[in-house]
């Protein structure tokens, strides 16, 4: 297997130093008889302060969303604008428009139903008169 295949997999193979954790090495570590390079693997790693690498990608320790400028995108609005207030205003506007559309549809369907029943009734009445029924 090549290195590119190892990195591109969803779950890469375990690190090569997992073979150091044998029963004999664990007992030697408890007794303090391991050399320094092997003993270093028996201690937990230091906690990362700025970033860490996971599956070949570097991630920051503190999760934060990059600004538009940091992402290389032009900012089209002013920073002083209250985003929450604008979002509420937009939500109210969308809700009112939705209710307006529903109301219009309800009126249109009731008019269609009335005209359909009137036309059906008048044609039935006309048919009855043609047949000589009252």
Question: Which percent range fits the helix content?
Answer: 40-55%
Largest sheet descriptor? 2 strands, antiparallel
Query: Averaged pLDDT, please?
Result: 79
Give the N-to-C terminal Cα separation: 93 Å
Label the overall shape: elongated
Q: Total number of β-strand segments?
A: 2
Query: pLDDT below 50 for ≥5 consecutive residues: which ranges?
Result: 1-6
The helix-and-strand class reads: mainly alpha
How many individual helices?
A: 5
Q: Which band does the percent of strand residues land in?
A: 5-15%
Gyration radius, in Å: 37 Å
Please provide the ordered H/E string of secondary-structure elements: HHHEEHH
| Spatial order of the strands forming the largest sheet | 1-2
